[in-house]
Amino acid sequence: MIFEIPVEVASHFEKGELVAAIAQDFQTNEVLMLAWMNREALTLTIESARATYWSRSRNSLWLKGESSGHFQEIKEISYDCDGDAILLKVKQIGAACHTGERSCFHNKLNGKFSE
Amino acid sequence: MIFEIPVEVASHFEKGELVAAIAQDFQTNEVLMLAWMNREALTLTIESARATYWSRSRNSLWLKGESSGHFQEIKEISYDCDGDAILLKVKQIGAACHTGERSCFHNKLNGKFSE
Fold first, then answer.
1. B45-74, pLDDT tens digit by residue?
2. Cα–Cα distance between A30 and A28 in angstroms, integer?
3. C or N terminus of chain A, fewer CB within 10 Å?
């Protein structure tokens, strides 16, 4: 099965830009984390069906789970209307967050909005 | 009720960086869109309980729904472990996407990953 990187997404890579990648639990739809991808990261993600990101802090490719075992198995990939964001539906092995929390978004703003 | 912008998030604003903001349906957990916020956008979002972003293309604040009526009413805000991404749980009025689709992530990559 050949996947092609859509032109809307590729246009950002051609400009040297990264795209944002949201990982979401494929069953519960919980948002797990947000990270970044360059073309190589997206290609590896597609080919291996395991999420690979571009680490902006380490300036290197980052196979999620390589050291922790907490891989993200890809179930579906979609991209947004202007091609600068990607949504990965994944089966998360273990925790997405390095803190051990399932999601990186485990901190809420204090206060309460209307119900 | 006073909300404070968490220091992890504020540190990015102090460096002149934008943070990524994911809007998610508060009932179904569907991811609707990804946009960007500066400090003023986040402050307005908190104060008005309506999502306001920073438009990178127009270089201006953008109250989502101002022209379309498709506002996003904020139900909950969380932020990730390194403070560079925000998750908004929203009640989406109408469509999130300017194409009329409910979500901006309505295009899937062709092909199929393992079930």
1. 999 999 999 999 999 999 999 999 999 999
2. 5
3. C
pLDDT tens-digit map of B8-54: 999 999 999 999 999 999 999 999 999 999 999 999 999 999 999 99
Task: Choose among B74, B79, B112: nearest Cβ to A105.
Answer: B79
What strands lie across the sheet with B31-37, from one edge to the other?
Answer: A107-108, B72-79, B85-92, B19-25, B31-37
Contact B80 A105 (CB under 8 A): yes
Q: What confidence score (pLDDT) does residue B47 get?
A: 93
Q: Which of B80, B82, B108 sits opposite A77 (nearest CB)?
A: B108
A31 close to B (CB below 8 A): yes
The closest alpha carbon to A62, from A16, A98, A94, belongs to A98
Of A2, A6, A30, the CB nearest to B107: A6
Helices in chain B by DSSP H: which ranges? 7-14, 39-48
What ipTM does the predicted assembly reach?
A: 0.93
The residues pairing with B22 across neighbouring beta strands, listed in sequence order, are: B34, B87
A chain contacts of residue B107, beta-carbon cutoff 8 Å? 6, 8, 78-81
In this prediction the pTM is 0.94
Asked whether the beta carbons of residue A109 and residue B77 sit closer than 8 angstroms, the reply is yes
* Rounded-to-integer distance, Cα B5 and Cα B40, Å: 11
